[in-house]
């Protein structure tokens, strides 16, 4: 393909299709670098993969990395988790927003670019994907209504912390009921008067068959919900007051079971801050 034809193709693609700012989709990926590889993994992700493997791609318009130091890992619940074994596994979390309606376009690009990165030895192998899934946005609950940042600002706004929560229902029908209960009752009550500015809720989508072999197929496509709680305070400072009892509250609803509640703080881009506090 000539440079002129390639440029014309880009112009054509940009002239059609959705191009709003709503985060219709997300990539949420929790990864554990293998022991002894923490610094090398972090440098690879900071210096190369965050950009070449994510932000440089079409329609992935916002991203942020988060980290769980050892003290944060030890706050996680439940002890027996369907997500992480042990529950402390997965000390880095990356979150990315994808433009609503552009999931298929983005997926075709990301599969192709990751195959190329892998061929060029630009994929760090000494790591384990604990929880990696592309997800479709279901709802966002705001503490302050129309005031404050929106969900499309969430990965750029300097939030002090994030809590990843994963809830499983027993069936697709029950998940629909769980989602409505979360949206209308549980999340507004939990956010009111708390450091939680917003909670975004997603449902996982299956990965394509030609995904990279080191990423396992997504579980719970019909029954799982993923929640991201964006905090204006360090999660350690509000954990006891605002995040204890989540499992019991969900269980009492009869609509699902909490499989993971995990707090994180933002990384500092371009640095190795917190790498020495992972173990």
Q: Please, what is the average pLDDT?
A: 94
Round the Cα radius of gyration to an integer and report it. 19 Å
Separation of termini?
49 Å
* Tertiary shape: globular
Helix/strand/pairing category: alpha+beta
Q: Trace the largest sheet across and list its strands.
A: 1-3-2-8-5-7-6-4
Give an overview in words:
It is a single chain. The model has no long low-confidence stretch (mean pLDDT 94). This protein has an eight-stranded antiparallel beta barrel. Helices cover 31% and strands 28% of the residues. The longest helix has 20 residues. The chain is α+β, with helices and mostly antiparallel strands and 279 residues long. It is globular.
Search tags:
279 residues, alpha+beta, eight-stranded antiparallel β-barrel, 31% helix
SSE order and pairing:
Blueprint: H1 3-14, E1 23-33, H2 38-55, E2 60-67, H3 70-73, E3 92-99, H4 103-119, E4 127-142, E5 161-168, H5 172-191, E6 196-204, E7 224-231, H6 235-242, H7 246-253, E8 257-266
Antiparallel strand pairs: 1-3, 1-4, 2-3, 2-8, 4-6, 5-7, 5-8, 6-7
TL;DR?
Helix content is 31%, strand content 28%.
């Amino acid at each position: 393909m000539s440079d002129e034809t390639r440029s014309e193709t880009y112009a054509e693609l940009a002239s059609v299709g959705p191009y709003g700012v709503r985060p219709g989709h997300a990539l949420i990926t929790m990864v554990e670098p293998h022991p002894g590889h923490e610094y090398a993994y972090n440098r690879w992700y900071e210096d190369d993969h965050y950009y070449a493997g994510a932000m440089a791609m079409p329609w992935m318009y916002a991203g942020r990395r988060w980290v769980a130091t050892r003290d944060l890992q030890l706050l996680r619940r439940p002890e027996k988790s369907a997500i992480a074994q042990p529950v402390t596994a997965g000390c880095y979390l990356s979150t990315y927003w994808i433009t609503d309606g552009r999931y298929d376009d983005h997926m075709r690009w990301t599969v192709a670019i990751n195959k190329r990165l892998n061929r060029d030895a630009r994929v760090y192998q000494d790591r384990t994907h604990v929880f990696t899934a592309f997800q479709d946005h279901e709802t966002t609950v705001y503490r302050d209504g129309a005031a404050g940042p929106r969900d499309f600002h969430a990965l750029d706004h300097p939030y002090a912390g994030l809590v990843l929560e994963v809830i499983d229902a027993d069936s697709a029908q029950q998940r629909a009921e769980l989602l409505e209960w979360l949206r209308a009752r549980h999340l507004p009550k939990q956010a009111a008067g708390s450091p939680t500015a917003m909670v975004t809720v997603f449902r996982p989508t299956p990965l394509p068959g030609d995904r990279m072999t080191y990423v396992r197929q997504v579980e719970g496509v019909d029954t799982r919900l993923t929640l991201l709680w964006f905090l204006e305070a360090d999660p350690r400072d509000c954990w006891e007051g605002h995040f204890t009892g989540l499992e019991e509250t969900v269980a009492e609803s009869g609509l699902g079971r909490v499989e993971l509640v995990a707090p994180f703080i933002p990384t500092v881009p371009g640095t190795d801050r917190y790498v020495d506090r992972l173990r």
